[in-house]
Amino acid sequence: MGKDSKPKDAKGKGKQAAGSSGGDDGGGKGGKGKGGKSADGLGTCTYVKARHVLCEKQGKINEAYKKLQDGWLDNGDKVPPAEFAKVAQEYSECPSGKKGGDLGWFPRGKMAGPFQEVAFNTPVGAVSAPFKSTHGYHFILCEGRKN
To answer: Which positions, given as ranges, span the membrane (predicted)?
Structure first.
């Protein structure tokens, strides 16, 4: 699922300013034909910048997610990337956990199945709910999107 999709319109290969606040999700030029253009850019961008936590056991991912819920999510607050990074360093079983779960920018087609779906459909600044993939259980912080 999603293994044969490669970004065909990847014109923005150079690095853009990672600190851009809202202009990264517009345009919609490089979509793969899945869904139309949406006002918030979900599902239409070519690249996403994300952090994640990966755990083999569902109980451990739920424990990590609860830490974020108790501190921010239950209050309706966004989780600061530095705080997400602390949880990733403590709980994640992925090598990226040492870097605070940082996966950097990645294009459509690079990540498998449900991970890609969740990463490209989580609003910037939001944390996804925990979900299962072939690698285990994850949740994702979306830090940016661009075309």
So the answer is: none
Q: Is residue 19 part of a domain?
A: no
Q: How far is 63 from 65, CA to CA, in rounded Å?
A: 5
User: Does 33 map to a domain?
Assistant: no
Q: State pLDDT tens for residues 78-97.
A: 999 999 999 999 999 999 99
Is position 11 within any domain?
Answer: no
- From 24, 13, 8, 7, select the one nearest 145 (Cα to Cα): 24
For residue 13, the Cα-to-chain-centroid distance in whole angstroms is: 19
CATH code for the domain in which residue 55 is found? 3.10.50.40
Structural domain span for residue 81 = 47-146
Average pLDDT, the chain: 79
Residue 53 corresponds to which tokens in the numbers above? 């936590």
